[in-house]
Amino acid sequence: MSLLAVKQLTKSYQAGKTAVNNLSFELKKGECLGIVGESGCGKSTLARCLLRIEPIDSGSIYFKNEAIEQLNEHQLHPYRKNIQIVLQNPAAALNPKLKIKDSLIDPYAQYSRKLNLSHFSYSSRDAFVKQLLEAVELPSGIANQYPHELSGGQRQRVTIARAISIEPELIVLDEPTASLDVISQGAVLTLLTELRETLNLSYLFISHDLAAVSQMSQRIMVMKEGKIVDQFIRDHLFGEERHPYTKELISIF
Fold it and tell me: Do 138 and 157 contact (CB within 8 A), yes or no?
């Protein structure tokens, strides 16, 4: 059974630009599905549509066989628990006025009545925060610091810890390493792979970086001008049957 199924999804803006054009795909439970394409091809718009941050013009979005594109905010509440997002800029994703421990506890506070956690336990607030920091390989002392006191790699690990805190089934990773240095990029990608296996997560990994996508993903979709122009399993990346645009991306990575 597909965890996420998208059928003929289209999203346009008032300026007349069709950012997402009749997209259809499925993501299986436990899978990392990569979407790669140049900036402006519609990747981030697709992510916002899947999260219901932006309305779609037409098409359907199914999560565990339930159509969610027409659900109101109250009906979306359990869906939002099960799908989280990690964004490109961790500094913007974290409230600069909150200590790290407060940012980490916020998702739990929102969903605590409906949570049945299996990987983390909540004996106390501090113990829960410590578990989350350990999961992303950060020292517990960071809990009392503010975002500006951390490095970019540390801040991104905090946003990952926040995303996994309520044990979602799917995490949308929207350019999660784009703002990091090369060493931090590699470390974060390794961490994400380990977490997917340990916590049985599913990922939609969105990036302009084909090398990162190929490292992370079992299947890859190539997006250009709002459309999926190629899709294949990772082992077929260098196949002769690849779309010319895919070959163009390969030549520069």
Answer: yes
Q: What is the pLDDT of residues 72-115, one digit of tens each?
A: 988 998 888 899 999 888 888 899 999 999 999 999 888 876 67
Q: What is the pLDDT of residues 186-233, one digit of tens each?
A: 999 999 999 999 999 999 999 999 999 999 999 999 999 999 999 999
Alpha helices in the chain (DSSP H): 43-50, 73-82, 90-93, 100-111, 125-135, 152-164, 182-199, 210-216, 244-251
Would you say 230 and 242 are in contact if contact means Cβ atoms under 8 Å apart?
Answer: yes
Helix (H, G, I), strand (E, B) or coil at 216: helix
Q: For the domain bounded by 2-251, which CATH number is listed?
A: 3.40.50.300
- Domain residue extents for the chain: 2-251
Determine if the pTM surpasses 0.90: yes
